[in-house]
Amino acid sequence: MRHTFRETWSGLKRNMSMTIAVIVTMTVSLTLFGLSVMTFQEVDRVKGRWYDKIEISVFLCTADSAGTSKSGNCEPGQDTSDVQRENIRTRLEQNPDVQEVFYESKQDAYDDYRRTYADSPLLDSLTVDQMQDSYRVKLKDPENYQGVVAEASSLPGVQNVLDLHQVLDPIFSVLNGLKWGTMGMAALLLVAAMLQIGNTIRMSAFTRRREIGIMRLVGASNVYIMLPFLLEALFAGVVSTILSALALFGSYEFLIERNAKVSIKALPWISWSDAWLAVGLVAIVAVVLSIVPTLITTRRYLRV
Asked: Which of 58, 67, 141, 149 could form a disulfide with 135 if both were Cys (CB 3.0 to 4.6 A apart)?
């Protein structure tokens, strides 16, 4: 092993500039990869929290709703009748995607409005009859909402169907684009790091071609010859992992713990366990990134 470590140190000194370049590239790529993993976790956590609370609101007709731009299935000058209201509830409860149906009367809507907008100057101008009664529909799977919205929108007595997916889906589209874009950039840099590691090992093998030839002649095994090159690559991988872990922990501490969690308390944020998971995945990728190109390169270039 003494000879192996000596050869490893010799190779690192000979290719110091290339080793530093590999470490820098790997650190940046691994950090981006770790950030993308943390972004995935955050988006999934926020999506799970918001989607679990999503309810479809089915607003019923009022005497003033017909003739408007969103009159729905309302009759002119008529509120939703008791027969229509009961039919709507029955159809919603029979839908296999619906978990529970809640009815909110005009009085309930009026009381809720007064609590929410207690300081509004328009508060005293509204009456109970001007409010809309509605059904709040809780879904079994918030992802399967299209069928319920389509059915509710076609029922007589329904003025409008409010689906929060219309608001949330564009937000999550942007967030998904962000996380996949980060992952794509990380993947490109990881490929660049693999190529750099391969070039570094190839140069190291070329400078030691005479020693490799002698070891071949005396019967040295392939593992014995390749081990110094593997250690060189692993050294770069370990250093890159440490630097990337420091960057990820620092980002989490200053961006999430000290800022986001303090200023935006309404959102569920990732925890330290998620940050450690990202670092663990970074370490695994770093090991694979170090070993695979080294094995491929040495197998090709260590033939004497």
From this structure: 58
Report how far residue 195's alpha carbon sits from residue 185's, in angstroms, rounded to the nearest whole number: 16
Q: Which residues of 240-275 are buried (b: 16+ CB within 10 A; e: fewer)?
A: bbebbbebbbebbeeebeeebeeeeeeeebbeeebb
Q: What is the set of domains in the chain, with CATH numbers? A: 2-50+168-301 (no CATH), 55-163 (3.30.70.3040)
Token pair, residue 119, equals 């300081």
Confidence bin at 97 (pLDDT 50/70/90): confident
- pLDDT: is 95 or 15 the higher one? 95
Tokens (6 digits) for 45 = 């956590």
159 sits in which H/E element? strand 158-162
29 by Cβ neighbours in 10 Å (0-12 / 13-18 / 19+) ranks as buried
pTM of the model: 0.62
pLDDT above 70 covers a percentage of the chain that reads 75
Distance of alpha carbon 266 from alpha carbon 75, whole angstroms: 41
Q: Which residues contact 37 (CB under 8 A, 6 or more apart)?
A: 277, 278, 281, 282
**Could you tell me what percentage of the chain is helix, strand and coil, using 3-state DSSP and rounding each to the nearest 5?**
70, 10, 20
Q: Give per-residue pLDDT as tens, 160-219.
A: 888 777 766 777 777 778 778 877 877 887 787 777 777 777 776 666 666 666 666 666
| Beta carbons of 221 and 212 less than 8 angstroms apart | no
Measure the CA–CA gap between 287 and 235, rounded to whole angstroms. 10
